[in-house]
Specification:
Keywords: Methyltransferase, Transferase. Pfam families: Methyltransf_25 (PF13649). The chain is of the alpha/beta class. It has a single domain (14-265), classed as Rossmann fold (3-Layer(aba) Sandwich). Helix content is 41%, strand content 21%. The protein has nine helices and seven strands, in the order ααβαβαββαβααβααβ. It has helices spanning 19-25, 35-46, 63-69, 83-90, 129-142, 163-177, 186-195, 213-234, 236-251, and strands at residues 53-57, 75-80, 98-102, 115-121, 143-156, 198-207, 256-265. The chain binds S-adenosylmethionine (SAM).
Length: 271
């Protein structure tokens, strides 16, 4: 990117800025809970090739978009609700078969049964139960039968977790990231997919280490990590936010994980 691009939520007071945009402003590009490693597992499960028509929900800073484009899909369409993020993603696109539209994943306006792959990361967790279902149903609508859908989200564990504990975790994450967040259990994620006509084909989990130094170096590279670290040290308001988020993630580390699921749209859509 040559010209200075405006970052999402750049003009908002930092204490009220959603956590993912605080991290993006500090230089973080990987904004999903399982990092690059779980993204790569999701992409391996999706097995994108040059014959695929791919739709990405909520590409954010375009990190996975670039990995996907390396596979030269026939079509790549992203649906992103944030204008600045969409502008950043567009800077990676090339040609009429690659687009990023500003819109909502629950109502993409895309034609039914036309995509062979849909994926979205760290975007369902922040939705209500009803909206999660609407987005998954929209993925099912735009996919052709047999199409693959990949998600990469936050989950609370174990499946049998006490309900009060689960709600406490959801509440504390919501408060610290300054954005609604409702992570659910692995079983609940799978159930939501199955309820919307998908068959789970692949599942992987990893620790929620989004803000741990080792994961940050793995995700952003040493130089990227040092840039973020310098920004954290020199921006006290943002530092407070990052440390606040990390405190909550650490507090609940035994009950928080990242999950990726890759599922296939059933041949007969008998949901
Ligand atoms: C935590 S960021 C994740 C970005 C990127 N997927 C990643 O993993 O690095 C959440 C993203 O979801 C987008 N988003 C949230 N709800 C959305 C919706 N209903 N439709 C489209 N985009 C949405 C936000 O604008 C933001 O880019």
């Amino acid at each position: 990117m040559s010209k200075k691009v405006q970052m999402p939520s750049e003009n908002r007071e930092i204490s009220k800025t959603p956590g993912h945009w605080v991290l993006a402003q500090l230089g973080k590009r990987v904004l999903r809970p399982g990092g690059k490693e779980l993204t790569q597992k999701m992409l391996a499960g999706l097995n994108i090739t040059s014959t695929d028509s791919v739709v990405e929900f909520a590409p954010g800073m375009g990190y996975t978009a670039r990995l996907c484009l390396q596979q030269s899909p026939k079509h790549y369409t992203a649906i992103e609700q944030n204008e600045q993020a969409a502008e950043i993603v567009r800077s990676y696109l090339d040609g009429i078969n690659q687009q990023c539209q500003i819109g909502n994943a629950q109502n993409t306006g895309l034609e039914s049964n036309t995509a062979s792959v849909v994926y979205g990361e760290a975007m369902l967790t922040m939705q209500s139960d009803a909206r999660k279902s609407e987005i998954i149903a929209e993925a099912a609508r735009i996919l052709s039968a047999g199409g693959r859908y990949g998600i990469h989200e936050l989950c609370v564990t174990p499946d049998e977790i006490d309900d009060t504990k689960k709600r406490t975790i959801q509440k504390e994450i919501t408060e610290t990231i300054q954005h609604p967040a409702k992570p659910i259990t692995p079983q609940e994620w799978k159930q939501l997919m199955e309820n919307n006509g998908f068959e789970i084909e692949y599942e992987a989990v990893s620790p929620m280490h989004l803000l741990e130094p080792k994961r940050m170096i793995d995700d952003e590279g040493l130089l990227g990590f040092l840039t973020i670290a310098k920004n954290i040290l020199t921006k006290p308001a943002a530092r407070k936010r990052v440390l606040g988020m990390r405190r909550v993630f650490r507090k609940h580390h035994t009950n928080l994980s990242a999950i990726t699921l890759v599922a296939k749209k059933k041949e007969t859509n008998d949901v």
